[in-house]
Write a structure and sequence with these properties.
This protein has 3 helices and 9 strands, in the order H-E-E-H-E-E-E-E-E-E-H-E. The protein is an alpha+beta fold and 168 residues long. The strands form 2 sheets. The chain has a 7-stranded mixed sheet. A two-stranded antiparallel ribbon has the order 4-7.
Length: 168
């Protein structure tokens, strides 16, 4: 840290003014950006959607494709219809880890390979920072209400269908 005590009061005052001006400019620039869901504790409800299938079951799926959309995920949602989920789409396969900070709903994450095969499932408790990771590198993670997969007998090895996986 730089010690400002050896400077004159005029140079200190100038330095603080310059920093204040820079901060104001930055805040002004940030303030012109549209507010996104999640910034104020609001759920994101208007993401692009696609239909996925798991055997005979249809899943109405919101797509979280940008970094910001993935960061917010299902945070702040108070309810979600049983046939609805969120598919997190990453640019390249990797070991994906999820937590439940600011997420009110109990969820199950299905870590999904490029061909639509569920690699592993993880039940996640609300409002925790516990980490839940894919067993191997994946590009997709599908979050559903906790129990949805189990009630339908869907487990690791099940193939999902839909546009992201090249199968309808």
């Amino acid at each position: 840290m730089k010690n400002f005590s050896s400077q004159t009061s005029d140079s200190r005052q100038y330095g603080w003014r310059a920093m204040a001006l820079a901060a104001a400019t930055l805040l002004g620039l940030l303030g012109t950006a549209p507010a996104m869901a999640g910034d104020q504790g609001q759920p994101q409800m208007n993401l692009r959607r696609t239909d996925l299938t798991a055997g005979m079951y249809r899943i109405d799926t919101q797509l979280a494709v940008t970094e910001r959309q993935r960061e917010i995920g299902l945070m702040f949602r108070k309810e979600m219809p049983q046939q609805e989920g969120m598919l997190f789409v990453f640019e390249v396969p990797g070991v994906q880890c999820f937590w439940m900070r600011n997420t009110i709903l109990p969820l199950t994450a299905a870590f999904v390979a490029d061909d639509g095969t569920i690699v592993n499932l993880a039940d996640m408790q609300p409002m925790t920072d516990d980490s839940h990771c894919s067993a191997k590198p994946v590009r997709y993670v599908l979050e559903m209400n906790q129990g949805w997969f189990a009630k339908r007998g869907i487990k690791a090895g099940t193939k999902l269908g839909g546009a992201p996986f090249g199968r309808q």
